[in-house]
Amino acid sequence: MPAPIALQLYSVRDQLEKGFDSVIRQLADTGFVGVEPAGFPGTTPEKAAQLFKSLGLQVCSAHTGLPLGDEKNKVLDVAKTLGLKRIVSGKGPDDFKTVELIKKTCDLFNQSAQVAKENGLTFSVHNHWWEFELLAGKPVYKYMLEYLDKSVLFELDVYWVTTAGANPAAIIKELGARAPLLHIKDGPCVKGQSMTAVGDGKVDVAAVAKAGAATAEWMIVELDSCATDMLEAVKKSYGYLTRQGFARGNKA
């Protein structure tokens, strides 16, 4: 059976700011099984949790800060409010510029995974293109795999992997069960250009779905930006993924 489909709510951040309840109800009506918050524009974690529950939407995971230092209690409180099992975070390109910086970044990820484990959570790293660029002839993510504890998981963003010139299906196979969350987006695979509805761009979505068939627990649509109406692109992405059998929704 295909993995269930969710939406990363960052995709509709502008719409949520204007009418959080209305947008979430549209997503539920479309058939999305779950949502992945990244902040709470136009609402609070408490109100969002109540709405998700009333609509039967699962909160598959959430993008948060690292659960360390001053952010620790804030992240854990949000996780508790939403009933989360998974938190996701990442770091910017400057944190991967050298091998030494990669080690320091991975240490933070390892600490985050330990805090998550102590609180009944898992911790996943969300990538952009910079984790798949070369450093001294070797992809950055290969260094990361050397320095990360096995408990650190990945939310693999297949668009940014493709944009970096790597093969997302091959990476999914390589990571196996360490990549239970897949970010599915599409477009020209060119930095700085708008994305498209899934199925309208250059990402080999069929290969991605096949590679993740045995290990992906969620297929999470995310469009950072879109030249067309975002909600329509989100709904079109849902239709494409579910009709093709790449993901499982609540409606045909």
Overview of this protein structure:
With about 250 residues, the protein is α/β, with parallel strands linked by helices. The protein has a single domain (about 5-245), classed as Alpha-Beta Barrel (TIM Barrel), CATH 3.20.20. Helix content is about 40%, strand content about 15%. It is built from nine helices and eleven strands. The strands form two sheets. It has a nine-stranded parallel beta sheet with strand order 3-2-1-11-10-9-6-5-4. Helix 8 links the parallel strand 10 and strand 11 (about 220). Helix 1 (about 15-30) packs parallel to helix 2 (about 45-55) and helix 4 (about 100-120) crosses helix 5 (about 140-145). The protein is globular. The model has no long low-confidence stretch (mean pLDDT about 100).
Set down the secondary structure blueprint.
Blueprint: E1 5-8, H1 13-30, E2 34-36, H2 45-55, E3 58-59, E4 62-63, H3 72-82, E5 86-89, H4 99-118, E6 122-126, E7 134-135, E8 138-139, H5 140-147, E9 153-157, H6 158-163, H7 168-175, E10 181-184, H8 205-211, E11 218-221, H9 230-243
Key terms:
11 strands; alpha/beta; 9 helices; TIM Barrel; 252 residues; 41% helix; single chain
